[in-house]
Design a protein that fits this description.
2 domains; 52% helix; 12 strands; 8-stranded mixed sheet; Rossmann fold; alpha/beta; PABS; cell membrane; spermidine biosynthesis; Growth Hormone, Chain: A; 4-stranded antiparallel sheet
Length: 505
C-alpha cells in the first residue's frame, strides 16, 4: 500500500520558526482544553455535589469522546489547516460557553447532569480532533519520522496541560471566577487556532476560506466578549432563580460561595447557603441548634470546642449554659465568620455570640487543626460540638471519618462528650447516613447514642428531621423535649474511613 505524503506547505517564515509556531499553538490549545475539563468538574461538583462522581463522569466521557474525535479527524486531513481552524473556533465557543450553559440549566431547569454529559462529549470530540490535524500540519512543514513528530507534539501538549491545570485554581478561578474564566479561555483558544492558520498556513486557503475563517473567529470572539460583559447580570439572575429574589449577600470566598437571603426588612427569615446548601434557616435555626448542643452540655462543660458552626448559632446555645469558661470555634471560611460578626440579621440570630470575651475563633480546616495538635493550648475540652456540613457533601466526608473522630477523641477530657450533626434523616428512626456516622464514632472507642429531632414544617411540607450522634467514653442518655433516641441499629454496619468513605450524596 502506498501512503500519500503530506504536500509541503508554502510558509511565510523559515521551517524552524513554523514548527515553533505549531508547537506553541499545541501548548496553548492543551492548556485551554484542560481548563475546560477542570471547569466542568468544579462547576458540576458545586451544582450537583459529590465531586468524585462528577469528576469520574467528566473524565471518562471526555476521554471516550477524544477517541471518537481522533477518528473523525481523518476526514479533515486533506484540508488540515482549514479543518483545524474550524475545530478550534467551535471548541472555543463550546468550551467558553459551557460554564454559563451549565449554570443556566441548573438555575432555570433544576438539573445539570444532561448538560454536563453533553458538553463533556462535545468538548472531548473537538479536543480529540486536534492532535491528528496538528500532526498533519507539522509534517507538512518539515518531514520527519512519525515517532519524533509525536514526541514533539505530546511534549508541548503535556506542558500546556500542566500550565492550564495550575492556572485554573491559582489564577482563573480566584481572579476571574468560573464564568468569566471559561469565556476568557475560549477567547485565547480562538485567537491561537485562528492566528496559526490565517498567518502560517494562509497559502493553503482560498479567498472564500480566508473570509469564512475570519468571520467565524470574529463572531466567536464577539459572542464571548458580549457574554463576558453580561456575566455579572446573568449570574445575579441565575442566583435569584436558585435562591429567590431577596438575595442580600453573595460572595465567593476562597473556600466556597456564601449567600444570604431574607432579612434586611424583606419580611422573610434570614437564610445562609454555603455552596448552594442551606446551612441556616431563620425559621428553624433555634430548634436545630438546641437539639444539637443541649444533650452534650448535661455534664461538665467548662471548656467547649465548636467545629464548624461559623454562623455563631451553636456558640449562642453553648453560652446559654452557666459554667462555660471558654469556647473555641474552628471555622475554615473567614467570610462566614465575618458575616456572623457584622451582618445585622445574623448577629441578631446568634445574639452577638462573637462579642463574648469567652469565645475564641480560629480560621483553619478542623481536620488539620486537630491533627497538628493546635488545640493543646486551650484543651482538652469537656464538650466538642461538630456542627459541620453533612457527610454527603464530598469535601466534608473526611470530617466524618474514623481518622477524624480519633483526632477528636484525643482532644476530649476522659469524661468529655462529643455531639455530631449527621444530616437530615427524613425518618424518625434514622437513616443510613446517621447509622454510618454512629458506627464510625463507635469504631474509635466511644459509646454512642444516636437521636433525631424534628424541625417545623413549611407550608404544605413534612417537618424536617435532623440526625445527631452523642458520644462519650461511658454510656450517656439523651433527654429533652422533641428528642427521640434511635435504637434499631441495622446489622452489618462498617465505619467510614479516609480510604473507604461510606456516605452517599
Amino acid at each position: 500500500m502506498v501512503h500519500q505524503r503530506p504536500v509541503p506547505a508554502r510558509l511565510p517564515v523559515p521551517a524552524g520558526l513554523g514548527r515553533l509556531a505549531v508547537l506553541t499553538t499545541v501548548f496553548v490549545c492543551a492548556a485551554c482544553g484542560l481548563v475546560y475539563e477542570l471547569e466542568l468538574v468544579a462547576l458540576a461538583s458545586y451544582l450537583i455535589g459529590d465531586s468524585v462522581t462528577q469528576a469520574s463522569v467528566v473524565l471518562s466521557v471526555m476521554v471516550f469522546a477524544m477517541g471518537v474525535g481522533s477518528l473523525l479527524a481523518k476526514r479533515l486531513r486533506r484540508r488540515a489547516a482549514f479543518g483545524f481552524a474550524v475545530v478550534e473556533a467551535v471548541l472555543a465557543l463550546t468550551g467558553g460557553l459551557s460554564a454559563m450553559a451549565l449554570y443556566a440549566c441548573f438555575a432555570w431547569y433544576g438539573q445539570a447532569r444532561l448538560a454536563l454529559v453533553a458538553f463533556s462529549l462535545a468538548i472531548g470530540v473537538l479536543i480529540g480532533a486536534e492532535v491528528p490535524l496538528l500532526m498533519t500540519l507539522i509534517q507538512r512543514i518539515r518531514r520527519q519520522d512519525a515517532g519524533g513528530a509525536v514526541a514533539d507534539l505530546f511534549a508541548a501538549d503535556y506542558v500546556g496541560a500542566l500550565v492550564g491545570g495550575l492556572a485554573f485554581p491559582f489564577l482563573l478561578l480566584p481572579v476571574l471566577g468560573q464564568l468569566t474564566g471559561a469565556l476568557v479561555t475560549g477567547a485565547v483558544n480562538a485567537v491561537a487556532g485562528g492566528a496559526l492558520v490565517l498567518w502560517l498556513f494562509r497559502c493553503d486557503l482560498g479567498p472564500r476560506a480566508r473570509w469564512a475563517l475570519l468571520t467565524a473567529n470574529g463572531l466567536v470572539l464577539v459572542v464571548l466578549a458580549v457574554c463576558s460583559l453580561l456575566s455579572g447580570p446573568f449570574e445575579r439572575a441565575a442566583r435569584h432563580a436558585v435562591y429567590g429574589a431577596d438575595v442580600r449577600v453573595a460572595v465567593h470566598s476562597e473556600v466556597q460561595e456564601v449567600v444570604l437571603t431574607g432579612g434586611g426588612g424583606s419580611g422573610r427569615p434570614v437564610s445562609l447557603f454555603l455552596d448552594g446548601h442551606l446551612r441556616v434557616s431563620g425559621t428553624d435555626a433555634s430548634r436545630y441548634h438546641q437539639a444539637l448542643v443541649r444533650p452534650a452540655m448535661t455534664g461538665p462543660h467548662h471548656r467547649v470546642l465548636v467545629l464548624g458552626g461559623g454562623d455563631g448559632l451553636a456558640v449562642r446555645e453553648v453560652l446559654r449554659h452557666p459554667g462555660v469558661a471558654a469556647v473555641t470555634v474552628v471555622e475554615r471560611d473567614p467570610e462566614v465568620l465575618r458575616l456572623a460578626r457584622t451582618d445585622p440579621d445574623l448577629v441578631a440570630l446568634n445574639h452577638g455570640a462573637y462579642d463574648d470575651r469567652r469565645v475564641h475563633c480560629v480560621t483553619a480546616d478542623p481536620f488539620d487543626w486537630l491533627r497538628e495538635g493546635r488545640w493543646a493550648g486551650d484543651g482538652p475540652y469537656d464538650v466538642v460540638v461538630s456542627d459541620l456540613p453533612g457527610p454527603g457533601v464530598t469535601p466534608s466526608t473526611k470530617l466524618y471519618s474514623q481518622e477524624f473522630y480519633g483526632l477528636v477523641g484525643r482532644a476530649l477530657v476522659p469524661d468529655g462528650r462529643m455531639v455530631v450533626h449527621s444530616g437530615d434523616t427524613g425518618d424518625p428512626a434514622g437513616s443510613p447516613t446517621l447509622w454510618t456516622v454512629d458506627e464510625t464514632v463507635r469504631s474509635v472507642g466511644l459509646r454512642t447514642t444516636p437521636y433525631t429531632a424534628a424541625g417545623p414544617p413549611g407550608p404544605g411540607e413534612r417537618p424536617r428531621i435532623w440526625g445527631f450522634v452523642l458520644a462519650a467514653r461511658e454510656p450517656t442518655g439523651v433527654h429533652g423535649p422533641g428528642l427521640r433516641p434511635c435504637t434499631r441499629r441495622p446489622p452489618g454496619l462498617l465505619p467510614s474511613t479516609l480510604m473507604h468513605p461510606r456516605y452517599d450524596d
